[in-house]
TrEMBL record:
<comment type="similarity">
    <text>Belongs to the TRAFAC class myosin-kinesin ATPase superfamily. Myosin family.</text>
</comment>
<dbReference type="InterPro" id="IPR001609">
    <property type="entry name" value="Myosin_head_motor_dom-like"/>
</dbReference>
<protein>
    <submittedName>
        <fullName>MYO5B protein</fullName>
    </submittedName>
</protein>
<keyword id="KW-0547">Nucleotide-binding</keyword>
<dbReference type="Pfam" id="PF00063">
    <property type="entry name" value="Myosin_head"/>
</dbReference>
<dbReference type="GO" id="GO:0051015">
    <property type="term" value="F:actin filament binding"/>
</dbReference>
<feature type="domain" description="Myosin motor">
    <location>
        <begin position="1"/>
        <end position="184"/>
    </location>
</feature>
<dbReference type="InterPro" id="IPR036961">
    <property type="entry name" value="Kinesin_motor_dom_sf"/>
</dbReference>
<keyword id="KW-0067">ATP-binding</keyword>
<keyword id="KW-0505">Motor protein</keyword>
<keyword id="KW-0518">Myosin</keyword>
<keyword id="KW-0009">Actin-binding</keyword>
<dbReference type="InterPro" id="IPR027417">
    <property type="entry name" value="P-loop_NTPase"/>
</dbReference>
<dbReference type="GO" id="GO:0000146">
    <property type="term" value="F:microfilament motor activity"/>
</dbReference>
<dbReference type="GO" id="GO:0016459">
    <property type="term" value="C:myosin complex"/>
</dbReference>
<dbReference type="GO" id="GO:0016020">
    <property type="term" value="C:membrane"/>
</dbReference>
<dbReference type="GO" id="GO:0005524">
    <property type="term" value="F:ATP binding"/>
</dbReference>
Length: 184
């Protein structure tokens, strides 16, 4: 299949705005510069043409921008699928469970808020190819982080949030104390 190598620039660039989405919409792969929107358009067209499910696999190292790339692909689908202003599906899918970030994100040497989850995002379309819903499944990838952290890294955020809340009555039975951790 198609392979796109993307680099996380760590800042907002004008190459992901609405007008760029419309520029890639309806184009054939290779007619324009390589872009996450070109990959998304190809998947969208093949879904509509062949009436078959499509997959986009986003892979890379910690801090490479995988989650950001997935957000851009969802923004593309929401815009070309007629859902962007109606439901803001991108925001609903990615913000559907904010507690997941606290439970599954940790500080690494490359990223202060690195997701330690694998994510499988399934987007549902109706017969007119408009987004009608989405489902996100997560898979914890680094169980070892629970008991060990490399130098300059931290455990999952939830660990520090629980320790900081140790004095609250509802946490008294957990046996935590404010001295059981050193915040980074």
């Amino acid at each position: 299949g198609i392979v796109l190598v993307a680099i996380n620039p760590y800042e907002q660039l004008p190459i992901y705005e609405q007008d760029v989405i419309y520029a890639y919409s309806g184009q054939n792969m290779g007619d324009m510069d390589p872009h996450i929107f070109a990959v998304a358009e190809e998947a969208y067209k093949q879904m509509a043409r062949d009436e078959k499910n499509q997959s986009i696999i986003v892979s890379g190292e910690s801090g490479a921008g995988k989650t950001v790339s997935a957000k851009y692909a969802m923004r593309f689908f929401a815009t070309v699928g007629g859902s962007a202003s109606e439901t803001n599906i991108e925001a609903k899918v990615l913000a559907s469970s904010p507690i997941m970030e606290a439970i599954g994100n940790a500080k690494t040497t490359r990223n202060d808020n690195s997701s330690r989850f694998g994510k499988y995002i399934q987007i549902g379309f109706d017969k007119r190819y408009h987004i009608i819903g989405a489902n996100m499944r997560t898979y914890l990838l680094e169980k070892s982080r629970v008991v060990f952290q490399a130098e300059d890294e931290r455990n999952y955020h939830i660990f520090y949030q629980l320790c900081a809340s140790a004095s609250l009555p509802e946490f008294k039975d957990l046996g935590l104390s404010k001295y059981s951790y050193l915040p980074a």
